[in-house]
Amino acid sequence: MNKIALGIIFGGKSSEYYVSLHSAASLLRQIDAARYEITMIAISQKGEWFLYEGSIDALEHDHWRQEKCTPCALTHGGLLILHAHEYELRTLDCIFPVLHGKNGEDGTIQGLFELCDIPFVGCDHMSSAICMDKEMTHIIVEHAGIPCAPYMSVYAWEHRDPSAVYEEAKEKLGLPFFIKPCNAGSSYGIHCVESPAHFAEDLADAFYHDGKGKVILEKAIKGFEIGCAVMGNEELIAGSVDEIEISGSFFDYEGKYEMKDAAIYCPARIDETLFKAAQDMAKRAYRAMNCSGMTRVDMFVTPQRTIIFNELNTIPGFTATSRYPSMMKEIGIPFARLIDTLVDLALQRKTGGDRRAEQ
Predict the structure, then answer these.
(1) 294-345: per-residue pLDDT in tens?
(2) Cis omega before residue 325 (within 30°)?
(3) Which residue of 82, 183, 200, 287 sits 20 to 30 Å from the alpha carbon of 230, by its own alpha carbon?
């Protein structure tokens, strides 16, 4: 049996560059080497592309530029490797993008994969883009009848006085509320607002991390956060539901990646009725946003035992202990088989196995 020529892309021009390195290293250690011919593709923080042929340890600890790297570029059907005096064209059957944040899960690179006619793991360019944009997500998910937190949008081109924005948000949303960049991940630029103090600075920081001049202000939901992993194209698999316990106001970067003042329980400590309702809402949100391949859906459970949608993450963390693999492992899909299934789903879309792609 011929091996699948799989390109694994990591790094990227994103504030989540280091998260990508850890995820890629974990995936490479877990993948079934007997099934795949692996091509490692690194994108530097400047946006340079390289064929990487070094160790996984050097990759994970951001020393990969010190090992063998050859400039390359994606082209139709594969990778163009630019040697000193000649070029090599390496065909790729599929790409697994292990990229987080801007340029990695916002539809940018997914559009490139589609132009190059190479199957890839995860959502297509349109779904990736709208899932990344928190305002668009609100609009579409609310239209689908899925309950979300009340919110308002603020645009840089309006040049509004921050004090006026604060007063409007206080009246519409109450206190506390959150400031969130519309297009950022890993909790960068998110601030919990309880008073006018530092509001202008926090708003400016959110705009900085967004990079596209759009921020949302969102009512704080009392309760706790849960998540559900969803996988599939036409037929969906909902993983287990996990629960996040925090001591601060929200699950920030240090909580997510260093577990500072935070703990994750999988399965979540909720009853069967809420558990099933969370899985159902996750699948409804997945469908509403036209997702494919994989997505993690985050939600809140209120003291009244209602579930409120929060957001979708189309390329969730992929270390062995990350939430998405952990939720799938809980339902009997270990890491290596999860990788195989996601690659199979990508190839299924290419071969027309998903009827939605044919319409």
Answers:
(1) 999 999 999 999 999 999 999 999 988 899 999 999 999 999 999 999 999 9
(2) no
(3) 183
